[in-house]
Amino acid sequence: MTRLIQARLINEPFDDPGLFLDFRFSRRALLFDLGDLGPLSTREIMRVTDVFVSHAHVDHFIGFDRMLRHLLHRPGPVNITGPVGFIARVEGRLGGYSWNLLDGNSVDFRIVVQEFSGDRVTARAEFRAREAFRRRELDPPDLPPSRVLQEEAFSVEAAEFDHAIPSLSFALQEKISVNVWTPGLTRLRLPVGPWLNEAKRAARQELPDETSIHVATGWEVPLGELREHVFRQGPGQRIAYLVDMAFQPENRRRAVNLARGADQLFIEAGFLNEDAALAHGHRHLTAAEAGIIAREAGVNRAIPFHFSARYFEREQELRDELEKAFANPVATFTPG
Ligand SMILES: [Zn+2]
Ligand SMILES: [Zn+2]
User: Fold this and answer.
1) Which of 32, 172, 308, 329 has its CA 20 to 30 A from that of 82?
2) Are residues 107 and 208 in the same domain?
3) Which InterPro entries does the record cross-reference, listed alphabetically (predicted)?
């Protein structure tokens, strides 16, 4: 099945963390983390509408300037989610430059920043190019707990983790996928047309079968009939991105919860088990701990990244430790 959204790591696993989520059928992309964005083309960066930053350690946030440089003359806003205190971080980065060339005639580029803390978005502010990026407070959006973005076709969830500082991880959940089966349309003698978009939307919203779908003037068809003959529905994919967290019970519970049932779990796996003490000192996961979380969450595939440079010659060992813990109900090593 063709996936609406395709995810790929921006860098090699020893370089900065970051995930690029590309929408196949529209000029749009999302970013999880803002590390080195070097491998992304200008065109790809220009597609980014929403960015989700785990925390402000430099390897997760240094790409902000590069993104800003590209988006500055784009009319569409960029929305950025980060942990508590993040609005001030963005304000600080913007404050590092002179903006005297911006005025009321500039392209109306806006940066909307929201902070996620506990289990919800707690603060929001915007910075407009036309106002030389002065901070303007906004009311936080009205979103359900754990949501940082909610749209018709998908949503993004966040959870907060202990990494000595608060660090966020994210999961994108597509709603059900709905495709049209053309022979079914022919059989019901229904025309192709814009009404199908409305019908697909109703299906994605999981409205009841009796829902009446408007085809043309005086021509209605029940949603259930379309479900039976015209639509091919599949589960929407879940893509989880877990970074920079200590392996402790509450983090583990939240990590498993966020990654549960993911088709793809991108997870930090930076340290070998032999260096578990070091990993824990830095409030990071080992590869084996990443594997335990992947197994407990029942994910389909775990993709490790954010490897510590100390293992430059030992990449396969990191991958093996994760795979072993992912596959075995009883791990043969003891996480520290
Ligand atoms: Zn960190
Ligand atoms: Zn990191």
Assistant:
1) 308
2) no
3) Metallo-B-lactamas, RibonucZ/Hydroxyglut_hydro
